[in-house]
Write a structure and sequence with these properties.
By secondary structure, the chain is mainly α. The protein has 8 helices and no strands. Helix 5 runs antiparallel to helix 7 and helix 5 runs parallel beside helix 8. Pfam families: DUF6415.
Length: about 180
């Protein structure tokens, strides 16, 4: 038996890049698509990204409900809690406006435009230094958060707080026994 000798790769197939020339296309000009250089982000932006991700707070409907309840309660919050509560409500407004804009609801539904505009205006206002003016501002923030949240829940952009979906507690659990 003789040994089987296979042709080398170079002998089997010619180099296609050399073998294939430009097809006969007549007078059609060759189209060269220009490639733009990549624009890399600034070093500071790249370094700040992980910190921004760590600082991100996910949507928590129950915490929102508690804070809006504290802001709109008939008893105003203590003076030392007003600034903290206002800051959290501003954060909720930012989240809700972002949800409205990113979902396209702001552009599609005219009912969403006014609450989003009010939320942006409230968010931009500086907090007042006086306690009583701070409570008024806090209640305005609470109403804006409540209105925009209810509208986005109605339009199925976000879900409502889980505590509103729980079955009501029986009255016997809240009654004290003598």
């Amino acid at each position: 038996m003789s040994a089987l000798v296979l042709p080398s790769r170079a002998e089997r197939a010619p180099a296609t890049s050399l073998a294939l020339g430009r097809r006969n296309c007549g007078d059609v000009p060759r189209w060269d698509r220009p490639v733009q250089r990549a624009c890399l982000p600034e070093r500071e932006t790249v370094k700040a990204a992980p910190a921004a991700i760590r600082a991100w707070q996910p949507y928590d409907g129950n915490a929102w409900l508690d804070d809006v309840g504290d802001a709109l309660d008939s008893v105003p919050p203590a003076e030392d809690r007003v600034d903290e509560l206002a800051q959290r409500l501003r954060g909720y407004l930012t989240q809700l406006v972002n949800y409205a804009v990113n979902s396209g609801t702001e552009a599609q539904d005219s009912r969403t435009m006014d609450p989003v505009a009010r939320a942006r205006a409230l968010r931009a206002e500086k907090p007042p230094g006086d306690y009583h003016q701070g409570v008024v501002h806090l209640r305005r923030l609470g109403r804006a958060v409540n209105e925009l949240h209810d509208l986005l829940v109605e339009q199925h952009v976000i879900k409502g707080p889980d505590s509103l979906n729980e079955p009501p507690q029986p009255a016997s659990l809240f009654q004290s026994t003598p």
